[in-house]
Amino acid sequence: MFRQLSNKIVLITGASSGIGESCAKIFHQNGNHVILCGRRVEKLNLIKEQLVSSNSSGKVFVSQVDVSSLESIEKMINGLPEDMKNIDILVNNAGLSLGMDPVSSLDVGKDLDAVMDTNVKGVFRVTRMVLPGMIQRNSGYIFNVSSIAGSMWYANGSAYCASKAAVTAFSDVLRKEVVQTKIRVTNVCPGLVETEFSLVRFSGDSDKAKKPYNGIIPLTADDIADNIFYCASRPEHVQITTIEAMANNQASTSVIYREPVENK
Q1: Cα–Cα distance measured from residue 170 to residue 221, given in angstroms and rounded to the nearest whole number
Q2: What is the spatial distance between Cα 67 and Cα 147, in angstroms, rounded to a whole number?
Q3: DSSP class of residue 166?
Q4: Residue 207 pLDDT more than 80?
């Protein structure tokens, strides 16, 4: 069951859709103040309108940021309102994958840079900006959204798997570095979750984007946000170090039972 968790300042990257958007909604509806961060400011403002029109007492602030850019992150942190600078909960959610090419034909220029700069450097940099304040206040919670692909690697996913393995390692190291504080760190490792992720991976090709979810009921963004909020609402002495959540009928990145499609 959930415990009361309200009046916390929650910064969420990649909040314009998917898991980030769902996290914003569940934290806000429980009376917390959310900072919506992402590149698509128009979408962030629409989400803000929805949240503000609800019955929640939580505040909402929108910040356009590209986590692959250190300059953009610094501008975002420096632009926070004074009453929202002391971040209690950080959800490092922004991430992406581009294509499914083998190493022999991988774009080791633009595509590889985009994945590593967003998935790895973005997590490092945002955390680096927020962590000192948490250490000073001796409180805080950091959620790093990784993936089961960070430990269950698959062919044709080298860049994405490597980036999420880095996030998993980062989470473990960070937890050890703040062990003397009351700061908690959870590594979040979802399996198949149907969001815009697959559509981005396949450059907007909706047919390819739907294929990974054929024959199985995947997780939703709300499922993962629900798990994150559950962890955040635990008593202060309880630290859930890892969430590994997969859809029923999924056992790993590659072991999935799919219901056969009947011929019509």
Answers
A1: 23
A2: 18
A3: H
A4: no
Q: Is 82 exposed, middle or buried (0-12, 13-18, 19+ CB in 10 A)?
A: exposed
Question: Is 44 a residue whose pLDDT tops 70?
Answer: yes
* Cα gap 240→11, rounded to integer Å: 19
Residues 147 and 99: beta-carbon distance below 8 Å = no
* d(C-alpha 48, C-alpha 36), whole Å: 8
Full-model pTM: 0.93
Q: Which residues are catalytic?
A: 160, 164
State both tokens at 186. 């959870």
pLDDT of residue 213: 86
CA distance 153 to 102: 13
Three-class SS of residue 16?
A: coil
Q: Residue 5 class from Cβ within 10 Å (0-12 exposed, 13-18 middle, 19+ buried)?
A: buried
Residue 264 clears pLDDT 50, i.e. is over it:
no
Rounded to an integer, the average pLDDT of 50-64 is 93
CA 246/CA 122 separation, integer angstroms: 25
Least Cα distance to 238 among 167, 182, 188, 171 occurs for 182
What six digits make up the tokens of 263? 């011929």
Residue 209 has pLDDT above 60, yes or no: yes
- Where do the structural domains in the chain lie, given as residue ranges? 9-245
Q: What are phi and psi of 38, to 5 degrees?
A: 175, 175
> What CATH class has 9-245?
alpha beta
